Amino acid sequence: ALASKSSKILIVGGGGTMGSSTALHLARRGFTDIRILDVYPIPSKNSAGYDLNKIAGADAIGLFGGSSDAAWDAWASDPVFTPYAHDVGKLDLSTGDTPRAKRLREKYEKLKSLGRTDVEWLANEDDIKRKAPHLKNADIAGWRGLYCGTGGWVAAADALNSVGNELQKLGVKNAFGSSGTFSSLLLKEDGSVRGVKTIDGTEWEADLVVLAAGAWSPVLVDLDGQCVSKCWVYAHIQLTPEEAEAMKGIPTMYNDKYGFFFEPREDSHLLKLCNEFPGYTNYQTVQPFGALKPIKLSVPRSHAQNPTDTMPTESLDEIKRLIKITLPHLEGRELINQAMCWCTDTDDAQWLLTEHPRFKGLVLATGDSGHTFKMLPVVGKEVADLIEGKLSEEKRHLWRYRPGAGDPNGTGRGGPDPKDLSELDGWKHD
Ligand code: FSA
Asked: pLDDT, tens digit, for every residue of 180-202?
């Protein structure tokens, strides 16, 4: 075990998805001295989870998928999460006879063979429109894909906030603002970690430090190039109450080429839409803790700190295309609340969940790879298992420190290198 129940534990960036979940699992297991450090209070405005809705479901397969089923079970049964889970179903669609359509078909067969009765194969436009009457005017000839009745979406920031309230009840401490903003690790003479220094000069002593700073992780501590932070974008349409009512209960619709959107929020009647693309980087020269010299890294640009930023014109155009194709009655509506949301990709899209080999006493809980919010209820269990020495051999291998390992099994995002924000127009408004 890396710590015992009475160990002093600091969670850096703990106001987001992986960190708050880790605190929840540790506190529920009886760890008594946990403190979250973050720039912002939970739900941290720097977290990708600071959002109206995120996709969640129970349709991933494999080891990761094993935990994705468990995640939906927790969304549907744990009182901290149930109010934020919207079980409206999911459409995972592809356009034409694509390799992805083939993979979706295989996934459908696999889920069927596992006895799942909530999945259906939608072979054509008519099948899709039967499941999704709100797409009745959509121009989706040739589309096909998987319908999954379990899952749908989760109210992301609200769920994080709920975890924050629970942590308070469980006695988890915190420090936000300048006393919660990481400046460096504090090391013992033997090179192991004895705490964290924050930008106001506070020295927080700890037996174990967890780095769960999402897209900021590789910028704070040198991770030997294993995580590349990228942003994705979203915009909202302000619907009228009547328009929102008409779309109530619609399944989440995802298309790997055109993007995705969600059931409108009941409280604000906001409809969230995203395009799908390989993300954008923001390369800068920085020196993370542990790097011997300044290096080029993609550095997240906090939306909270740059609230007037919108999104690159090409992304905006893609979102307009998504609307034109799928929801033509909303064409031309103003796209408000445009924002960028930062994730950090590993090559194989598996988490980086391990002790840092150069800094004993530093646990890395990062590498979300854009697919971790749906795991909010369970990702912290894996971190807690690592800390308690209970993680299986298989998982330890999957989530090990692995610079240069690449993507031998093709589980990662692949594709071309993402564009850099510096090459793009339209997003900067300050
Ligand atoms: O089911 C899911 O894990 C949804 S991922 C949603 C998304 O916006 C991606 O589509 C995008 O490519 C990036 O990974 C961020 O997350």
From this structure: 999 999 999 999 999 999 999 99
25 lines ligand 1 (CB under 6 A): no
The alpha carbon of 330 and the centre of ligand 1 are apart by a number of angstroms equal to 24
* Ligand 1 closest atom vs CA 370: 14
Encoded tokens for 299: 């550095």
CA distance 266 to 346: 35
Determine if ligand 1 sits within 6 Å of the CB of residue 54. no
pTM of this structure: 0.97
What CATH superfamily is the domain 8-89+150-419? FAD/NAD(P)-binding domain (3.50.50.60)
> Which atom belonging to ligand 1 lies closest to the Cα atom of 369?
14
Cα–Cα distances in Å, from 421 out to 112, 228, 230, 306, 312?
42, 14, 10, 14, 8
Q: How far is Cα 270 from Cα 262, in angstroms, rounded to an integer? A: 10
- 144-180: pLDDT as tens digits: 999 999 999 999 999 999 999 999 999 999 999 999 9
Q: Count how many Cα atoms sit within 13 Å of the Cα of residue 132 in the half-sphere of its side chain.
A: 34
Contact 421, 280 (CB under 8 A): yes
- CA 424, distance to chain mean position in Å, is 24
Is 371 close to ligand 1, i.e. is its CB under 6 Å away? yes
Check if the interface score ipTM surpasses 0.90: yes
Classify 143 as helix, strand or coil. Answer: strand
